[in-house]
Amino acid sequence: MWRRGVRSVAAVALRPFSTDTAVSSSSAFKGLSREERNDSGDTRRHSSGGRDTLGRRLFALTYSKRSAVIAIRKWKEEGHVVQKYELNRIVRELRRLKRYKHALEVCEWMVLQKDMRLLSGDYALHLDLIAKFRGLSFAESFFEDLPERMRDHATCSALLHAYVKYNEAEKAEALMEKMSECGFLKSPLPFNHMLSLYVSTYQVEKISDLMKKLKKTTSPDIVTYNLLFASCASQNMVEVAEEIFVEMKKAEIEPDWVTHSTLASMYIKNSLKKKAELALKEMEKKVTKKVRTAYGSLISLHTGLENQNEVQRLWKKMKSLYRKLNDLEYTTMITALLKLKQREEAEKVYHEWESVSPTKDPRIPNLLLAAYINSNEMETAEAFETHMKSKGIEPCYTTWELFTWGYSKQGQIDKAISSLKTAIRSVRKWDPDEEMVQEVFHSIEDQGNVKAAEELLETLRQEGFVNTEVYNCLLRTYAKAGKMPLIVSERMRKDGVEMNEETRKLIELTSEMCVSEIPSNLFAKR
After folding, report:
1. Prediction pTM value
2. What single string gives the DSSP state of each residue in 24-64?
3. How far apart are CA 270 and CA 178, in angstroms?
4. How far apart are CA 46 and CA 54, in angstroms?
5. Is residue 52 very low, low, confident or very high in pLDDT (cuts 50, 70, 90)?
6. How far is the C-alpha of 416 from the C-alpha of 73, rounded, in Å?
7. What are phi and psi of 384, to 5 degrees?
8. Helices 68-77 and 100-111: crossing angle, nearest 10°?
9. pLDDT for res 84
10. Cα dihedral 20, 21, 22, 28 sign
11. Residue of 507, 499, 438, 439 whose CA lies nearest to 479
12. Nearest by Cα to 473 from 506, 497, 496, 495
């Protein structure tokens, strides 16, 4: 019995899988009408200029607190008919937009309708949404409560996908065994889920046996082969990848743009320029307007080959194909130009983004800011940060982290500490970057700046980040200044920090030096 036999499924894939294949027995998603979809693939809100539909009303529920159920009820009260195929289409589109709460509410409403005959594919989609929105344990409970006839290949595949997403390898493998016993492994989908798990968790030693089982039961598809190529890429096995490519061609499975992208990436990594260029040509042939993410990959890969002309050509092509480019695409292009040492061109693209994007995402200007700071152009970086603010772009943690690094490398200690404090204040809970803290302390040590060392120690103490190495940095700074710190042993004891051999040697060394001034924060409450 399934109820007692198995409890969960999934493991995060290198390439995301959905339960679309599993739910093929239910009404297929035909896509939204042109009125409901714009060029970028986003859904337009309901407006008085367009035809009123249930889909428009549900997509207009931008805030998660609003109820999809209330919207459906109101639609029915107005005398409209609610059809299952329409709700299936809406649910899939909401899931694509990551509007999991509203998609789940629609699924839950459908379950309560006695006149709607739900198939296992509908329950598979429902389970997938539960796993995404509520978590794995809820998805497992949902699966166990399903009627026996609904625990088939579709719902099992959905549960397997959930186990993969949560990296539950043992549960995934147990479910695969159960699916095999029940004769549910008749398509490559479950095997692809397991492949993605093994690739993403670097359990490549299990792939060979899995492929043998797959070939005994069914046949690999393009996703299977792309996952095998991903495995080869993770191990830098170019020759094996080429052998798999030959096998795929013999099986009459047509490569897609992902196939050529992975091969090109391996060739670039191994300095096989001609093979990489050929792979990129084949990749571009496979790219259509619908797959706009592929253009970003093309730009990044050509950047790796230092093909500046190709990068510019592809950028112009993207701008001609799409009415509006998104933040990720601008990020890709700015990053590419900076890698190609085309900073002026990168600045032009940035200012274009600044003039058209409504997001004010600080991650975009941080790309240029990092370039200025890495070139030790701190005055330019400061002017650019002022410019950001004037455009309504609020600096984020990374912005101040970059300034902390830049000032530290230039020995501008006061500004480095000030930037670090601002960075800490910009987040609810600081996750200490030990490497950055060490960089600031090393600059302080080099200058023997005891006051700055004490200030930094106090800042770190307030955030609960004091350890032996932090105190050793403080002691090395005192040693550099030729001064003796006061009651360090007592201070470490109060902070719950243990000494190591270096600490003891530094205390002994500094004990023979002149007494320093009492730090103003020495007797502060802790």
Report:
1. 0.81
2. TTS-------GGGB-TTSPBPPP-TTS---HHHHHHT--ST
3. 42
4. 10
5. confident
6. 58
7. -70, -35
8. 50
9. 94
10. positive
11. 507
12. 506
